[in-house]
Q: What sequence folds into this?
C-alpha cells in the first residue's frame, strides 16, 4: 500500500518531507520517497491518497495507568492536601485497592480506543491493583491484543499491603514477561515496583535480579514529589537516584518515571549510568509535585519519553505541556523547541521503553503511523510544521492510525468498534469504584 499525504515526518530531528509518501508492506515501512517516484516504482499498489494531511510516526505513550480513567471525576470530600495524602487518603484506598479484573478490562478497552484516536500506537502501562492478583496482567493483555496496539504491560509490585503481596506482584511480572516471550506479538511485559518508600532494599534488588534473568527493563516511579527524596535522605542519607546508584542500579536497565524532585547530581547519575526517564508534565501539576528538570535531562543526554500518566490522555495536550511549562519556568522561549518535543513523543518514548525500530518513518522500521488533518488557519511550511501541529491540533484531528501496518482508525473512527458501548462499560465500572468513595 502507498500512503500519499502532503507531508511526511520521517524523524522530528530533520525537516519534514513535502510531497513525499510511504510504501507499507506487512508490518513495516518498505519505502519513503516523493509521490511521483513511489507511483512509478509501485504502479500496481493500492493507493491511499491523503491530501491536506501529515503522516507522522505514531505517538508512544511511555507511561500510562489505564485504570486511572475510572478515577476521573471521582467524588471526594476534599482535594488531597499534598503528594502523600494524595496516595494515602485517596489513590491507594479508593482506587487501586478497589480494582478487580472487570474494572481493569473495562478501563483498558476504552483507553486503548481513546489512545488510538489520539494517534498513540504504543504504550507502557503500570497497573497497581494489589487485590486483583494474580492474573490481572493477562486480563489486561487480552483486551490490548484484541485492540491491536503495541504495548509493554507491568504490575507495580509493592510491599505496602504485605510482604506476601509484594512477592505476588513480582511473580505476576515475571510470569507475564515469560508468557509474552513465548506467545510473540505486539504485547510484552516489564518488571516494575512502586518506589523506595513502599519497597525494601532486598525487594528492589530482587526485582532487578528477576528482570536481569529475563533481559527486561525495570520500571519505578522516582521522586514524583518532595516526599521520596526526603524519605531517602532521612533513611539512607542520600537522595533517591543517589540511593539507586549506591545500590548499583542506576543503569540502562532502569526506567525511572517522573524524576520531578531531582537535583543536578542526580541528573549526572542518570546520564552516566544510562538510566531512562519518562516525563509527565500535566500529571506533575495535578499532584502538586513540581516541574521536572526536562531541558537539563535532555541536555545531559538522558533517554527521555513522554507519558500521559492516565490523566489528560490527549497526547497533543501532553506535548503542549512539555513545550510550554519549561519555557515559563526558565523564562526562556527557546527551551524545548517543538521538534524536540515531537522527538520525545515518538522515537524518544520508544527508546525509553526499549522498543526496536519504532518511532520513525524510515524503511525497515515498524509501520506505526498516524495521519493528521493539517487544515490550519495559516499555511503549513517546512519551518513551522512541528510548531503548528503541536500547538493547534488535538485528538479530533487524527484521521487515521496504523499499528504494525494494520489500519485501526480510518476517517477519524475506530474500525469495527462501538465506542459508546466501551464507554457504557467503563461508566458501570466507575460507578462501582465510586460507590466505595461515597461510603
Ligand atoms: Zn504514574
A:
Amino acid at each position: 500500500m502507498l500512503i500519499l499525504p502532503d507531508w511526511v515526518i520521517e524523524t522530528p530531528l530533520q525537516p519534514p518531507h513535502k510531497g513525499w509518501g510511504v510504501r507499507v508492506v506487512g508490518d513495516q515501512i518498505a519505502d519513503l520517497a516523493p509521490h511521483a517516484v513511489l507511483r512509478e516504482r509501485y504502479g500496481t499498489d493500492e493507493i491511499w491518497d491523503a491530501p491536506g494531511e501529515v503522516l507522522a510516526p505514531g505517538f508512544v505513550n511511555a507511561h500510562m495507568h489505564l485504570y486511572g480513567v475510572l478515577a476521573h471525576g471521582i467524588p471526594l470530600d476534599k482535594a488531597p492536601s499534598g503528594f502523600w495524602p494524595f496516595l494515602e487518603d485517596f489513590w491507594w484506598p479508593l482506587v487501586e485497592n478497589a480494582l478487580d479484573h472487570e474494572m481493569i478490562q473495562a478501563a483498558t478497552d476504552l483507553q486503548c480506543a481513546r489512545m488510538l484516536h489520539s494517534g498513540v500506537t504504543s504504550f507502557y502501562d503500570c497497573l497497581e491493583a494489589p487485590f486483583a492478583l494474580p492474573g490481572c496482567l493477562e486480563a489486561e493483555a487480552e483486551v490490548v491484543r484484541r485492540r491491536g496496539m503495541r504495548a509493554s504491560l507491568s504490575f507495580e509490585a509493592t510491599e505496602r499491603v504485605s510482604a506476601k503481596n509484594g512477592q505476588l506482584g513480582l511473580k505476576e511480572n515475571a510470569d507475564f514477561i515469560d508468557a509474552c516471550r513465548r506467545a510473540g506479538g505486539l504485547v510484552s511485559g516489564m518488571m516494575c515496583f512502586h518506589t523506595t518508600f513502599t519497597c525494601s532494599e532486598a525487594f528492589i534488588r530482587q526485582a532487578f535480579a528477576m528482570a536481569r534473568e529475563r533481559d527486561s527493563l525495570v520500571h519505578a516511579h522516582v521522586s514524583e514529589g518532595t516526599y521520596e527524596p526526603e524519605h531517602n535522605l532521612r533513611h539512607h542519607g542520600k537522595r533517591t537516584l543517589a540511593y539507586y546508584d549506591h545500590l548499583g542500579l542506576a543503569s540502562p536497565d532502569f526506567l525511572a518515571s517522573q524524576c520531578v524532585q531531582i537535583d543536578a547530581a542526580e541528573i549526572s547519575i542518570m546520564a552516566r549510568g544510562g538510566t531512562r526517564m519518562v516525563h509527565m508534565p500535566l500529571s506533575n501539576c495535578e499532584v502538586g509535585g513540581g516541574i521536572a528538570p526536562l531541558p537539563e535531562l535532555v541536555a545531559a543526554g538522558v533517554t527521555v519519553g513522554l507519558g500521559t500518566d492516565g490523566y489528560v490522555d490527549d497526547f497533543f495536550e501532553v506535548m503542549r505541556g512539555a513545550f510550554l511549562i519549561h519555557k515559563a519556568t526558565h523564562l526562556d522561549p527557546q527551551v524545548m523547541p517543538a521538534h524536540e518535543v515531537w522527538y520525545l513523543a515518538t522515537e524518544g518514548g520508544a527508546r525509553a521503553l526499549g522498543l526496536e525500530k519504532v518511532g520513525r518513518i524510515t524503511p525497515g522500521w515498524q509501520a506505526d503511523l498516524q495521519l493528521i488533518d493539517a487544515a490550519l488557519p495559516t499555511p503549513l511550511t517546512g519551518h513551522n510544521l512541528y510548531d503548528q501541529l503541536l500547538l493547534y491540533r488535538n485528538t479530533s484531528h487524527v484521521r487515521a492510525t496504523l499499528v504494525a501496518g494494520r489500519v485501526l482508525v480510518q476517517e477519524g473512527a475506530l474500525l469495527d468498534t462501538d465506542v459508546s458501548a466501551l464507554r457504557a462499560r467503563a461508566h458501570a465500572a466507575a460507578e462501582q469504584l465510586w460507590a466505595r468513595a461515597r461510603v
Remarks:
- The first helix runs from residue 35 to 41.
- The radius of gyration is 21 Å.
- The chain has two domains: 2-57+369-403, 66-353.
